[in-house]
User: Fold this.
Amino acid sequence: MNNMIQTAGPSISQKEINYTLDAVKNGWYENWSGYITRFEEEFARYIGAKYAISTSSCTGALHLILASLRLKKGDEVIVPNTTWVATANVVKYVNAEPVFADVDKDTYTLSPESLEKSITKKTRAIIPVHLYGHPADMDPILEIADEYGLYIIEDAAPSIGSEYKGKKVGNLGDAAGFSFQGAKLMVTGEGGMLVTDNDEIYETASLIANQGRDPNIDFWIREIGLKYKMSNIQAALGLAQLERIDELIAKKRTIYNWYKNKLSGLDGIQLSTEKEWARSIHWMTSLVLDDSIPVEREELRKKLLSENIDTRPLFPPINKFPMFKGCNCPNSEFLYKRGINLPSALNLTKDDINFVSDTIVDLLELASKILTH
Ligand SMILES: Cc1ncc(COP(=O)(O)O)c(C=O)c1O
Assistant:
């Protein structure tokens, strides 16, 4: 049986095995946090931020950030309508209200126009998402945040190493969260990182992240806290991945270019893009079918699956979930209806990508012929 051509998956080398084994064997007693400290320091340096706090997930990192802002019931936080549900869930965790804004059709990220229309007197923060490896268009978003006095929390879960106008994402707003869950560019199994330059957010997040423990009095608790910690063993794996990050990004970009050579410029297909102001890590190369293509997104996915090609739909518009509401967001609805993530796992070869691309072209050509017959 052929192996499945996967949408996502990591690259693990001997370095990751060595570091993790060392953490398992030696990372206890006085060495219990050695890899955690190194991973946090190296990650902060990589992003260009002052502080990094490792966490058990990006969801945890984003929750800690929102908790540190001391939002109160009724406060509103603007979230793009195309994202993973975690971006909105964390707003609910702190009893605030997520308000959904539409996304740009090319980058799938927060539309500054829709964002501005969504602002009310209750808005306190914005969470732009750098989705599928491509940064959000941050300058207009930062301008709006400045004008209305709003916090910016970047959800950079799938975009480690992406750049906006030459600056790494995660260092453009007040604080950011990253994910190292097993499908991401860098993995620690599950895991995440909070980064910030802001002393106050860092101090408060550190306190809350540690069950509210007073840093100066042993085992004394100052307030109700959270526990979203990363283990030393995971940090060892993360550090090894970080030391290989340029190689990992280069492979993602190569995969994208293989697709581009085969699929860009074809009628009726929009391949995910890289804006002139962006350096995308192309965590997932994606494709959106024009309405002119007589194929349903699910039909295409089913046919690809029958050829052992794994795909995902672009994220559903999250205002449609039963616990959320609001948003006139035609772009996020269109992207869900017509968009798929293509296989982009780090183990894929040029032959794999050629096979996927040829299969897509054959299926779409066949469908067009049947329709025009
Ligand atoms: C855009 C986005 N935000 C947040 C998350 C949450 O990350 P984690 O699974 O590490 O909590 C993800 C994970 O897929 C994501 O894609």
